[in-house]
Amino acid sequence: MRKLIHRMSKMCDESYFIIKSSIILTLILLACCLLTLLFAGGFSADTYELHRLAKELFTLPQAILIIAAIASVVIEDYATKD
After folding, report:
1. Which of 7, 8, 29, 72 has its CA at a distance of 20 to 30 angstroms from the CA of residue 14?
2. Could you report the per-residue pLDDT of 19-46, keeping only the tens digit for each?
């Protein structure tokens, strides 16, 4: 894990910013998902909407991370091209 973080810190500033921002956004969304589930309580007809929202908050970070990874690779490729 240390090698991965060290390698990421050597990326160009734009790529590193995209990766760092996407990880922060992912953590915020997952925390919101947890808080929504804690607030909703047990599953019932009244809490269906909150559980559905929590499910969407749980699946959204996957898309954000894959898009951020592709974008950072493309930017890093163009930045290091001679």
Report:
1. 29
2. 899 999 999 999 999 999 998 888 888 8
Q: Quick check: is 6 in a domain?
A: no
Q: Which residues have a Cβ under 8 Å from the Cβ of 8 and sit 6 or more positions away?
A: 16, 19
> Any idea what DSSP says for residue 1?
-
**Which one, of 61, 57, 31, 55, lies nearest residue 43 by Cα?**
55
HSE (side-chain half, CA atoms, 13 Å) at 14: 11
Quote the pTM value: 0.80
Task: For residue 20, tell me if it sits in a domain.
Answer: yes
Two tokens, residue 2: 């240390």
Provide the number of structural domains found in the chain.
1
Pick 73 or 1 by higher pLDDT.
73
Q: What is the DSSP letter of 47?
A: T
* 16 within some domain: yes
- Give the integer Cα–Cα distance in Å for 38 and 6: 36
